[in-house]
């Protein structure tokens, strides 16, 4: 394994262990995702800072607040990385209120507010995000839900008009459906691919190439909640075979760690975590902030869906 990838893998495990200790009763799935948040930012989880931020959330929010739901752990992690956690939480609350004017209350909306609190969203942005959500729901009424809120809030900043965005999504969706079927995961992937302006055919082909290369390298990648992680990686311009070898190296490393054995997380989830680690490295190397953000968002969505 390459030295830089080895370091990332080790950092990921250290962060995961710290998070599992700090959040003893929370999902192991979410702990891994949050470990990636730190690794992607090049930071190490700090137990004391996490405890302080947990208390901040508890003291500043009501018991029924969405900030105390599935978003509690990632929010505490994000706040712990801020120079001024109190100010960051205030921004998240203000952003959430802005979004709530256009979307119903949900953990996904709270997560969006936590992740986007530094992005200076306007009422017009939130209104456009809702308009996009309504258009998507019109096309796929049984597949569209609160989990699509995050990506609509990202897409509302696009310079493309709404119709072009929907056409891009539908083109991706039709290509993906032929291989991965008619499912919520397929729609989520089409939304992630639409974050890029590249042609839908090119994006889907890259996704298929990555999937096939991992299979040829000996990995059995899943076709459900694991797909969004692979979709975010499709925006990174890298050789699919080289990526597959890195993924399998990371997967081998994880297979030897506590929590990934016979009684631990599944092999499909472990392989998704390997993708998560490798995608963070490639995105950072190429300076692709959107790819990294898209990866983080898609993984959190995937883990929340898997836990339901």
Write the layout of secondary structure elements.
Elements: H1 3-22, H2 28-40, H3 47-60, H4 72-80, H5 85-100, H6 107-116, H7 123-139, H8 149-155, H9 162-180, H10 184-194, H11 200-216, H12 227-233, H13 240-255, H14 267-285, H15 289-307
Helix pairs in contact: 1-2, 1-13, 1-14, 2-4, 2-14, 2-15, 3-4, 5-6, 7-8, 9-10, 9-11, 10-12, 11-13, 12-14, 12-15, 13-14, 14-15
Characterise this structure.
With 308 residues, the chain is an all-alpha fold. Helices cover 69% and strands 0% of the residues. It has 15 helices and no strands. The longest helix is centred in the N-terminal third of the chain and has 20 residues, at 3-22.
Cα Rg: 18 Å
Largest sheet: none
Helix content: 55-70%
Low-confidence stretches: none
Q: Could you spell the SSE succession in H and E letters?
A: HHHHHHHHHHHHHHH
């Amino acid at each position: 394994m390459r030295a830089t990838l080895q370091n990332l893998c080790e950092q990921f495990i250290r962060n995961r262990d710290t998070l599992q200790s700090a959040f003893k009763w929370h999902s192991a799935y979410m702990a891994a995702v949050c470990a990636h948040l730190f690794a992607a930012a090049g930071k190490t989880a700090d137990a004391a800072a996490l405890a302080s931020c947990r208390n901040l959330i508890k003291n500043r929010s009501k018991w029924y607040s969405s900030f105390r739901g599935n978003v509690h752990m990632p929010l505490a992690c994000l706040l712990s990385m801020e120079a001024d956690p109190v100010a960051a939480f205030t921004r998240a609350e203000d952003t959430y209120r802005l979004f709530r004017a256009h979307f119903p209350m949900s953990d996904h909306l709270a997560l969006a507010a936590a992740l986007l609190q530094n992005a200076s969203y306007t009422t017009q942005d939130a209104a456009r995000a809702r308009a996009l959500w309504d258009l998507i729901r019109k096309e796929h009424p049984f597949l569209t839900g609160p989990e699509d809120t995050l990506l609509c809030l990202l897409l509302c900043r696009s310079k493309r008009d709404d119709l072009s965005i929907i056409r891009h999504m539908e083109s991706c969706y039709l290509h993906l459906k032929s291989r991965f079927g008619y499912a919520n995961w397929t729609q989520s992937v089409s939304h992630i691919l639409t974050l890029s302006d590249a042609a839908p055919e090119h994006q889907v082909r890259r996704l298929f190439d990555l999937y096939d290369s991992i299979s040829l390298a000996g990995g059995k990648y899943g076709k459900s909640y694991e797909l969004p992680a692979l979709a975010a990686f499709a925006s990174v311009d890298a050789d699919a075979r080289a990526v597959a070898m890195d993924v399998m190296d990371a997967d081998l490393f994880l297979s030897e760690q506590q929590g990934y054995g016979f009684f631990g997380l599944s092999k499909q989830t472990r392989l998704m975590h390997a993708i998560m680690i490798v995608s963070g490295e490639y995105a950072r190397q190429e300076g692709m902030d959107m790819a990294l953000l898209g990866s983080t968002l898609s993984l959190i969505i995937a883990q929340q869906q898997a836990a339901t």
